[in-house]
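As a warm-up, study this chain.
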Amino acid sequence: MATQLKPSIECSKEEWQARLDLAACYRIFDHLGWGESIYNHISIKVPGEEDTFLINPFGLLYDEVTASNLVKIDVEGNNVGQSQYMVNKAGFTQHAYFHKHLGARADAICHVHTTATMAVCSHKDGLMPTNFYACNFQDQIGYHDFEGVTVREEEGERLVENLGDYSILMLRNHGPVVMDKTIQGMFVKMWALQRACEIQVATLGMGNPNIVPQEVVDVHQRDISVMQSQGGAGVFDFEAWKRKIDRIDTTWRD
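Now compare it with the structure written out below.
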């Protein structure tokens, strides 16, 4: 596997590791087909700093994102790093509000427009307990009605209110926001949500879905929480996918 021994920009060792992980995450999302042209976002808090986070440069595809060209911005959207790129206002407005008001539970955030997740967000019943993965998330997802493109800070209050104590917010007619304390945890949560939505879309296309009873969902969630603790909250998954993209292209490390 390729290694990066020295940061190509001036930053702390901790920030460089965060940059590597975030750049890898963008490449993984691209490999899995979760990109959306130059739009959508993954962001993470800069370790050891207050109110700063890293996000993708506006205008680049996910497979063009590298550790050094990520943009470092504060919660007001100001570029406080060395990148010459701009950011998409729809990205930092939404992400900045979560980073600013939710603390460590939102240190890593992604927002996607995958076909399957957008389809479920656009269905009146949202995510239904029709499959293994969907049962992971029952009664653990918030929903927020569509208000147009997210560029107004005042919408942030309603986003946080509708999120509640959850870590996934399904933006109706739009797409999901997934967050976690770590980028690894956020990734594995997004992966399972994507699978849940893909399978629901396929199942509803056949008609007559078999809905899992709540008592079974409760047992499933109890047991899955034990299993997840054995996987390092997504660490094993994320490292496996990093090895995958390293075999394809190592330029994300630049």
